[in-house]
Automatic annotation (TrEMBL):
This is Transcription factor E2F8. Residues 563-581 have a biased composition (Basic and acidic residues). GO terms for biological process: negative regulation of DNA-templated transcription; positive regulation of macromolecule metabolic process; positive regulation of nucleobase-containing compound metabolic process; sprouting angiogenesis. Its main location: nucleus. The gene is E2f8. It comes from Oceanites oceanicus. Residues 742-756 have a biased composition (Polar residues). Keywords: Activator, Cell cycle, DNA-binding, Nucleus, Repressor, Transcription, Transcription regulation. GO terms for cellular component: RNA polymerase II transcription regulator complex. Pfam families: WHD_E2F_TDP. The lineage of its organism: Eukaryota, Metazoa, Chordata, Craniata, Vertebrata. Residues 99-168, 245-331 form the E2F/DP family winged-helix DNA-binding domain.
DNA sequence: CCATCCCGCCATTGG
DNA sequence: CCAATGGCGGGATGG
């Protein structure tokens, strides 16, 4: 049967391709066509689709265009070549499909091309796997791969047997927020750190093995509760039937993978690290060759899909040891979900937001205090997790660790979910931006170079050669710097992260019992953790830049030097020069008023004092929480958390407590966050809020998505004059501008407050 | 040689 | 019980 199938398939495929290709190829072969713009632009994988689907909405079309321009060209190029040859040869049996043409990435593009990024609720948005498989002429198995990762992002949800519902990117920002949160709670940052550290330790060889094991045992392995599947409030589990299979690896793996990006500062994750972490958070360090290999294979699958979604892109991390494949997050940066007013209508029990600022603030403080005083564990997710794990532990004690137990406990928190509307905008805009970036590469390069010099370190990615000793001192030194240096921009994200607990995103985590045993290790682990990390951090910051550089395949550059410290630069760098400039213009004009705010904000961030003043020790986390895995938060810690992922030790009233970044964020941020918010938000935001909500009656999601874009447009228009012409405008200038203005980075720079305001303003405008 | 990752066997699921 | 799902890893492929 396979025989039959194959031929058919090929025929179909080649068919399409050929038709398409002819035209494109010509240009390629012939210099004339390819303008400077897209030197390589060959036919894109999507091109076929485009044509076929051309009927689709403009949105889709534009997206396609963008895509075409920007990326994935490289992959396809090859394919093209093959085809070309064949063509010339004859119509014989044109090319054998060539592996590339069958790649999951391409397939995924095709798949995605069939549905709009932001489907309207009215549409049919149903996906029939059979049909899709057939239409795309692929085996079903492949479709599952795609759908699974899409499902992990809640871009689709299973309805029934052959049925899936398409949600597009509506839930994306919420999902990412939730994932980020979970990732933080799981101390992924630390785990990454650990692995890296271990890695370099190996270099010394000595008996790294032994030591590693110890380490692992002491804290690394402590990994506790395994994450199972993160769900969003709105869409828990559709078909009851579907539910059971909730925790399957690809889905979960995909989520975890994404979490790694969201949690790490450079937002670059190497395959190796990802695999290690994803593998066994339990039994690590048993270099199970085959297992590792398999994991990597899966990761490639996932990465392909994520790449198609333009959430990540492949890069290489170069260390002294050589280059390693890695992926860089190119998706929307997850903003800290701020309490947004209009919440999603989504199910959860979210208290109606009265005045956002006030409400959120109160909640935050309430949580903190209450938990402290009362042991209101329930509130804090991590606590819940702990409890769960313990329970599981008991249950499981006897069961063999390996045996997968089906019993999963789920934790559910009811929190309000917010759609950060703005968040979505950036996402949208981002893609657009990406395109531009290519052109600007060169420029970029220059920038990056300079930027590099400015910032020194790129801590994150690679561990430095230096032994721990150095680390200690360096770390301390490092700390201060990051704080000062680290600008709000990039790092702002973290802060934003804010109060998980009350944060809008609600999610449910299903724990895997098998991992329960880990609990035991828990306490010890946290005690130990701080020290090692600190070392790492310090070292890194110093040498990191030298040590690693990241390169894009195209050789774009080393865009990402990872360093938390110079978040600002880092941010800017990636963006294209033109973008930047335009962006700035926009900012200025748009945000004149905001400027003050921004400044303040920044100053706050930079100068601890401010923040400190606001919330001194008051925000310490209660012991209970500490138990969970971390310690108290402090005034400074915010910064720390923001600037450096690593952990540091802080002194608290209680004594010296080791803090992990994630924790800090959770704790501190709220406070931090809150203060500014109140001040800034109240006026405008509140007033505006009602209006907005009304407009969005139908579906918050939909509205949120669309509104922003349109608002952005308006904005753009207004500022068109301001925007520098440097940027090339392919098809529609407007869009581009929009992209620029709405850029995530931009958003991130500004304080949340600002964002909110902006949004509102824009919305108002839109509303007429 | 090695990084990727296609392919499809075959165990699970769920209906 | 059978079809739908989806682990998993051999081995092909392109650089």
């Amino acid at each position: 049967r396979s025989v039959l199938k194959t031929p058919l398939k090929q025929a179909a495929t080649s068919h399409l391709v050929l038709t398409e290709r002819h035209p494109d190829c010509q240009p390629l072969t012939t210099p004339p066509k390819p303008k400077e713009i897209l030197p390589a632009d060959p036919w894109t994988p999507t091109s076929n689709l485009k044509m076929l689907i051309s009927a689709a909405s403009p949105e889709i079309r534009s997206r396609e265009q963008r895509r075409e321009l920007s990326n994935n060209t490289s992959e396809v190029l090859q394919a093209k070549h093959c085809l070309q040859e064949h063509l010339s040869g004859d119509e014989y049996e044109k090319s054998q499909p060539s592996r590339k043409e069958k790649s999951l990435g391409l397939l995924c593009h095709k798949f995605l091309a069939r549905y709009p990024d932001y489907p309207s609720t009215a549409e049919n948005n149903y996906i029939c796997l059979d049909e899709v498989a057939e239409e795309l002429s692929v085996e079903r198995r492949r479709i599952y791969d795609i759908v699974n990762v899409l499902e992990s992002l809640h871009m689709v949800s299973r309805l029934a047997k052959n049925r899936y519902a398409w949600h597009g990117r509506h839930n994306l920002s919420k999902t990412l927020q939730a994932l980020k949160k979970v990732g933080e709670e799981n101390k992924y940052t630390q785990q990454i750190q650990m692995i890296k550290k271990r890695e370099y330790e190996h270099e010394f060889d000595f008996d790294g093995e032994r030591r590693n094991e110890e380490m692992a045992r002491s804290f690394g392995s402590n990994e506790h509760s395994e994450i199972s599947f993160v769900e969003l409030p709105g869409m828990e589990f559709r078909a009851a039937s579907v539910n059971s299979r909730k925790d399957k690896s690809l889905r979960v793996m995909s989520q975890k993978f994404v979490m790694l990006f969201l949690v790490s500062t450079p937002q670059i994750v190497s395959l190796e690290v990802a695999a290690k972490i994803l593998i066994g958070e339990d039994q690590l360090e048993d270099l199970d060759k085959s297992k590792f290999k398999t994991k990597i294979r899966r990761l490639y699958d996932i990465a392909n899909v994520l790449s198609s979604l333009e959430l990540i892109k492949k890069v290489h991390v170069t260390e002294e040891r050589g280059r390693k494949p890695a992926f860089k997050w190119t998706g929307p940066n997850v903003l800290p979900n701020i309490q947004d007013t209009k919440l999603e209508t989504t199910s959860t029990i979210c208290p109606p937001p009265i005045s956002e600022s006030i409400t959120s603030k109160e909640q935050c403080s309430k949580n903190l205090f209450s938990s402290r005083g009362k042991q209101n564990f329930t509130r804090h997710p991590s606590l819940i997790k702990l409890v769960k794990s313990i329970e599981n532990d008991r249950r499981k004690i006897q069961s063999a660790p390996t045996s997968p137990v089906k019993i999963s406990a789920s934790t559910d928190q009811n929190l309000s979910a917010f759609p950060s509307k703005m968040a979505q905008v950036p996402a949208i805009a981002k893609h657009q931006l990406e395109e531009q970036s290519k052109k600007a590469k060169e420029i970029k390069m220059e920038l990056s170079g300079s930027a590099l010099e400015c910032n020194l370190s790129s801590p994150e990615v690679v561990p430095k050669p230096e032994p721990p000793h150095t680390a200690a001192p360096s770390q301390q030194a490092a700390l201060p710097q990051p704080l000062g240096v680290c600008p709000p921009s990039h790092s702002s994200v973290p802060p934003v992260i804010l109060p998980h607990t009350h944060s809008g995103v609600s999610y449910a985590i299903y724990l895997h019992p098998s991992q329960a045993h880990t609990v035991t290790t828990y306490s010890p682990s946290f005690m130990l953790q701080p020290l090692p990390y600190a070392n790492v951090t310090g070292i890194k910051s110093i040498n990191s830049k030298v040590l690693n550089k990241i390169t894009t395949e195209e050789g774009e550059n080393q865009i990402a030097t990872d360093d938390p410290t110079k978040s600002l630069t880092a941010k800017e760098r990636p963006t294209i020069k033109s973008e930047t400039s335009s962006k700035r213009c926009l900012k200025r004009s748009q945000a004149l008023q905001e400027n003050n705010l921004i400044k303040r904000y920044r100053s706050d961030e930079e100068s601890l004092d401010t923040s400190l003043t606001f919330f001194p020790s008051g925000y310490l986390i209660p012991l209970t929480q500490c138990t969970h895995g971390n310690k108290a938060g402090f005034s400074d810690k915010e910064k720390t958390g923001i600037c450096s992922l690593q952990h540091t030790t802080y002194s608290s009233p209680i004594g010296v407590i080791p803090v992990t970044a994630p924790e800090l964020k959770a704790v501190n941020i709220p406070a931090f966050h809150i203060t500014p918010l109140n001040i800034m938000l109240s006026p405008t935001s509140i007033a505006a809020a009602p209006v907005l909500s009304n407009s969005c009656l139908n579906s918050s999601n939909t509205s949120s998505v669309q509104n922003p874009s349109s608002s952005v447009l308006n904005f753009t228009l207004q500022h068109v004059g301001l925007i520098p012409a440097g940027v090339q405008v392919p098809a529609n200038p407007v869009l581009q501008h929009v992209a620029v203005s709405s850029q995530p980075e931009h958003v991130s720079h500004s304080s949340e407050n600002m964002n909110v305001q902006e949004e509102k303003v824009s919305k108002n405008i839109l509303q007429l």
